[in-house]
Design goal:
The chain is mainly alpha-helical and about 375 residues long. It is built from 15 helices and 7 strands. It has a 3-stranded antiparallel beta sheet with strand order 5-6-7, with no helix packed on it. The two termini are about 25 Å apart.
Length: about 375
């Protein structure tokens, strides 16, 4: 018998309630360890929070910590989380002043922090911050058909990660009733379908275009194993990003692409439900990325809600359970939650904690409904 999304999520309420209870017990310690820091938590070193690798306050993940605090505030009503979210959001103002180091990930920095504040409290300064970020992202649009990634000599570079930042542009278009933001977002998404997503549903991480003609000049390995491989977190950005673009636009091409990326992802992880760092890395390399699993599970849940297809829901829950039982540190001596996260295959950031992994893991609870 086919079930709608609400019926599907009722089948796992016991487990998700259990996971939500673990979060309530864990997060006060994480919050305590962040009190008084002059940076926004990113990872954990020697049992304490540590900042991002470079660019200081402009480090691209710095919006995830206040976003997680807003989520915990909604979950518990505890004003300590609200105050920490507001403190971290105010710290991000310095990034606006450090324009040279800002980038394509301003959606990750402000939509989920200032945007959340505006949505929850109506704070007008948060509204202004979010709109400013949207205009900065729109300013990176190349009329040839893509949003430019990074700075410096990356004039023709675009990356699959940016599919998730398009949410900021959709929000700005809806809020201002100005179609320019939406047009930029859909143009970039259309280019991503054509040049990033392969016939089997696997994805490129980076495509380097001629910035005037859109001719493809190079397809680097990026954070994956090699050119032509399949970096799992890039797959999760594509899966979730195209799903969200479909929700905002109703364009069937985006839903088709999301399903293609999802079907490929599920096949790659169904042995143990914890993604490898790159689905085409050497078979004897055990490197995993729990973060890719958390992101993909969020996308799969949203996809199951849209399509009411059980296979997407079941895969999301399987990943949630694997993450919760095999990749999470629920102790009161370690401030992050998910371990076994990997920044890039060729980097040295293997088997670490990352704040955005925890954010998406927490978001799974919201999507399933424990709590709203």
């Amino acid at each position: 018998m086919c079930m709608n999304f609400n019926a599907m999520r009722q089948t796992c309420t016991t487990f998700t309630a259990y996971a939500a209870d673990l979060l309530k017990k864990k997060m006060p310690f994480a919050l305590e360890k962040a009190q008084g820091l002059d940076f926004i938590p990113y990872t954990v070193k020697d049992g304490a929070w540590a900042p991002g690798h470079c660019n200081g306050i402009c480090w691209w993940t710095n919006g995830f910590w206040p976003a997680e605090m807003w989520a915990m505030y909604r979950m518990t009503g505890d004003d300590r989380y609200k105050r920490e979210a507001e403190r971290a959001e105010a710290m991000l103002d310095e990034a606006f002043r450090d324009y040279d180091h800002l980038h394509h990930d301003v959606g990750f920095m402000w939509l989920i922090s200032s945007g959340a504040n505006f949505r929850i409290t109506g704070n007008d300064m948060s509204r202004k911050r979010t709109l400013l970020a949207a205009n900065l992202l729109a300013g990176r649009f190349n009329p040839a058909g893509f949003i430019r990634a990074w700075n410096g000599d990356c004039t023709g570079w675009a990356i699959i990660d940016c599919m998730m930042n398009l949410n900021l542009l959709y929000w700005a278009s809806d809020y201002t009733c100005d179609p320019r933001f939406r047009m930029i977002a859909t143009t970039h998404a259309d280019t991503a379908i054509k040049y990033f997503v392969r016939a089997d549903g696997s994805c490129n991480h980076i495509v380097v275009f001629d910035p005037e003609t859109l001719e493809v000049k190079e397809i680097p390995a990026g954070q994956g194993y090699a050119s032509g491989s399949s970096w799992s977190r890039g797959q999760s950005w594509a899966l979730y990003g195209f799903t969200l673009s479909y929700l905002h636009t109703g364009k069937t091409e985006y839903l088709t692409t999301a399903r293609k990326a999802a079907d490929y992802f599920i096949v790659q992880v169904q042995d143990d439900w914890i993604p490898r760092c790159d689905f085409r890395q050497p078979a004897d390399d055990p490197l995993k990325d729990a973060c890719a699993g958390a992101i993909a599970a969020c996308g799969l849940l949203e996809l199951s809600r849209i399509t009411e297809e059980q296979c997407y829901f079941d895969a999301a829950i399987a990943m949630l359970k694997a993450l919760c039982t095999r990749c999470a540190d629920w102790s009161a001596s370690y401030p992050a939650i998910l371990t076994q996260c990997t920044g890039s295959w060729h980097g040295n950031d293997h088997n670490i904690a990352m704040n955005y992994a925890d954010f998406f893991f927490r978001k799974l609870q919201v999507q399933i409904g424990h709590p709203a």
